[in-house]
Amino acid sequence: MKQAAPPSARIVRAYYVLTKPGIVYSNVMTAAAGYLFASHWHIRWATFLALLGGTALLIAASCVTNNCLDRRIDRRMSRTRTRALAAGVITVPGALLYAALLGAAGLGLLLKTNWLTVAIGLSAVFSYVVLYGWGKRHSIHGTLVGTAPGAASLVAGYTAVTGRLDVAALLLFLIMLTWQMPHFYAIAIRRLDDYTAAGLPVWPARRGIPSTVRQIVIYIALFFVAVCSLTVTGYTGVSFLVIMGGLGAWWFVLAVRGFRTGDAAWARRTFLFSLIVLTVFSAALPLGVLLP
């Protein structure tokens, strides 16, 4: 018989899960991709590690704070009612102190990059905790508001090298914006009952699933245009265009099938494929500056 973990280990794990590790890891991955893309693999290790560590800790702090704000909503959703704050495993003061320590450490590390990257990081924290926190409760466009902090890590990786916002930074932002919308709309379709129970005005709850499928298809088409634009503008080679253009086209075809079904199974496949797209993009982007 498997022995239960001691209470101390369960508490440590609860604090770890409170940071939403999946979000932290994906943002660290895109920050690294942005840095390697901008630097052409000429790595300044002190800056690179400060970027990754600062990004991870600031995002973790934001997620912990978001969990504090969402604890009452989480209790109404089957997927989230067992979260530590919703279930009372961790207290709100303890979680806020934890977030403050994570945020202070993250800011300290990010200050070792440059002021533009710090500004992007702090803007992402504000937009995720405050703007997105308000938007998802009151507006059908809350998901769109949430794309700004979600795109920040990739752009911050780029600016940690260049120290400027330019056409490449804009394209990277648009790529992440157009990737996130179908990704999160697919989640909203899969978890529609939960979002309805929580009273959140997500697009499928207010406009219906057929309209959400159209939105997903449109955003994937825009994602395809954005990734191709990196090659058209000379920032990546043809290899990147072939890889990401092909993957984007495949994702588009999968999304179009939603006009026939649009059910939870289709949404799950679309969601899982979006994770493949992000992972391949994060590898192809920095390699795209080396390959023809």
SSE map:
Layout: H1 7-18, H2 21-39, H3 45-69, H4 71-74, H5 84-87, H6 92-110, H7 115-138, H8 142-145, H9 147-162, H10 167-190, H11 192-198, H12 203-207, H13 209-232, H14 238-256, H15 264-287
Helix pairs in contact: 2-3, 2-9, 2-15, 3-6, 3-7, 3-9, 7-9, 9-10, 10-13, 10-15, 13-14, 14-15
How would you summarize what this structure contains?
This protein is an all-alpha fold.
Spell out the key features of this protein.
globular, Tetracycline Repressor, domain 2, single chain, 79% helix, Four Helix Bundle (Hemerythrin (Met), subunit A), mainly alpha, 15 helices, 292 residues
What does this structure look like?
By secondary structure, the protein is an all-alpha fold. The radius of gyration is 19 Å and the shape is globular. The chain has helices at about 5-20, 20-40, 45-70, 70-75, 85, 90-110, 115-140, 140-145, 145-160, 165-190, 190-200, 205, 210-230, 240-255, 265-285. The protein starts with 6 loop residues before the first helix and ends in a 5-residue tail after the last helix. The protein folds into two domains: about 10-165, UbiA prenyltransferase (Tetracycline Repressor, domain 2, Orthogonal Bundle); about 165-290, Four Helix Bundle (Hemerythrin (Met), subunit A) (Up-down Bundle). The chain contains 15 helices and no strands.
